Here is the input.
Amino acid sequence: MSALHSEIPLEKDEQGRDIVLSARDVTVAFGSKVVLDKLNLNIYRGEILGFVGASGAGKSVLLRTVLRLLPRRSGKIEILGEDYDKLDEEDRNRLDMRLGVLFQQGALFSSLTVKENIQVPMREYLDLPKEMMDELALMKIRMVGLAADAADKYPSELSGGMIKRAALARALALDPDLVFLDEPTSGLDPIGASEFDELIAKLRDTLGLTVYMVTHDLDSLFSVCDRIAVLGQKRVLVEGTVEDMLACDDPWVQSYFRGKRARSIVPREDIRGHNDDKGAGAHSREK
Ligand SMILES: Nc1ncnc2c1ncn2[C@@H]1O[C@H](COP(=O)(O)OP(=O)(O)OP(=O)(O)O)[C@@H](O)[C@H]1O
Here is the structure.
């Protein structure tokens, strides 16, 4: 029987952590241009994983490959213990329902209200009476910290921060286990970005979400991410805590995590001593 229909436990790593997503030897190429080459990555249940890498390194390509929007040349990806390639259509839909995605820029439908946007996945996957869908949409709206009157507004009537929250509410519409966030704080002012980070952490704590967050935002990485994975040279160069990043001697990782911007967030002594993996949480967000 498929894990989708039962409580079959997820595969664990050697430290006993439940593996929610595993990518094994994943290669993605466009013609002769190889973007990802035998990439390996695990995401564990209940964590917020920050995914970083230089511009053009392949972060979006990996995200789109995981979401099956791009084909891979080889390798295996398992999500919640399931390999899409081995599922029939019904089970693929069931698995899709357990995933939420927040694309860059929010990607809300401009001709739909916030409530209608949130109901798009409900209409696609569920057959619910209108009253129940309205109730559920309002619940999601409150969950992401929007006022109830946002329900009937169109995206053009919302601030950037409100759009992100509305898009997050849509990503949470079907109560997913795993949420993919593509640069969720880009375009937000520092306070809005901080608040969004806090919201993600709160939802992880209250809903038990697992979060895969592509980001360039050092504050997010230092304040809410449990682990960080760095994409470089077509694979995951290093993964671990902030402390592991500070200790890594790869030049790009060093300049990213120990450069001028990072120094304004992480206390200087932490960078020197690499001895505090969450030291930045209490520090103010840089613009
Ligand atoms: N459909 C495509 N066809 C050909 N090449 C592509 C395609 N999509 C992405 N690429 C190439 O793959 C590489 C990785 O792109 P990707 O968008 O994943 O980078 P990224 O790490 O997300 O960058 P950024 O941080 O700037 O968003 C780039 O060289 C890009 O030009």
